[in-house]
Amino acid sequence: MSAREFNFDGLVGPSHNYAGLSFGNVASFNNVKSASNPKLAALQGLAKMRALAARGFGQALLPPQDRPNFRLLRSVGFTGSDAEVLAKAAQESPVILACAYSASPMWTANAATVSPSADSADGRLHFTAANLNNKLHRAFEHAQSARSLRAIFKDEQHFAVHDALPGTPAFGDEGAANHTRLCKDHGSAGVEMFVYGRSEFDTSISAPKKYPARQTLEASQAVARLHGLSAERSVYIQQNPDVIDQGVFHNDVIAVGNANALFYHEQAFADEAGALDQLRRAMAGVGADLNAIRVDTAQVPVADAVASYLFNSQLLSKDNGKMALVIPQECQEVASVAAYLQGLVASGNAIDELIHFDLRQSMRNGGGPACLRLRVALTDAEAKAMHQGVVMTEALYHTLVAWVEKHYRDRLEPADLADPQLAIEVHTALEELSRILGMPGLYDL
Prior knowledge:
globular
């Protein structure tokens, strides 16, 4: 059965800010408490969506989440009116207020894990919202993520949206950022690769020493069960704990795959040879050969890969059978990465084109092109069954640009989070957005 991949990019919200809350994410931590530009961030993301849609790639969006998260603030003891809650939080615990205003839902690669209908036992497209329980500022996201996914993929004949796994350390789940699907084509059965950082119950598996390993083996196995995946086509690979300690907080910062190609760094996995052997054997079972594109440390040190977000790029299949690599502008500014990419495109491998975008507002918060999108392979029937209001078109682009220009600030300082007017502005903007997208009741405002 034929299928087409859609990338659902996160629409950056009106309260985009740099709180530096993500220990282990070097870029996020380095820009803590600096001023942000929500308007520019949203426009940069929309420009990316528009350009890829214009090229004929399947492109849609996931709406931002409501901020501040008053449910979080009230659950930890801040009481009174909304304005009083904000004032008390700002005075007593600014870091909790920053958590309630987190901009991280823009990175929809963490929203869920997705298994296409070609892989599942019941022939439906499955989503499991990620619990993101490693960080307070992310641990509340899954409720709205599931709500948004159910609003878009509401037809239960075609889709199944699962709630998040139990919010305990044993089931730490970071979504598609640690999941890659490899296949012959998007419509045929594929191999689902789950990359984990640690195990809760198997003490023989080594863990990083400096930064937390956010994805557990147990969570990955649970998602595979929920999605009804075949054991022969599910591969579990341990991320190299040493690169986690170098700022590679998710697998999508050190590897990216598409169709039968896996573009990865030499140090990505704890056992590189074993990982590739597992993948090759599983791929043979679906009639495909693995195209492993390895980047040596001598070519691109891990520090340069993290600084440029080379692997936090998108691999997109083109009509000519080749692939385009969607990269942030920073890849052209890190000498080793720029030199490597020039040689890659000239090598005659699967990747024959580079597409650059300026995503500095996202990059400064610790997320590149791959963080901004959730990949969903849809058959023709599934594409028709999903909600059409989120599919990027030229008309929707211009409508959303006008909406951003109307509602977004062009500068946001950390102190502004205590301003009750900001919360009102965000709520007003999101109410209008739900009407624009044709999704009434999307938010519990």
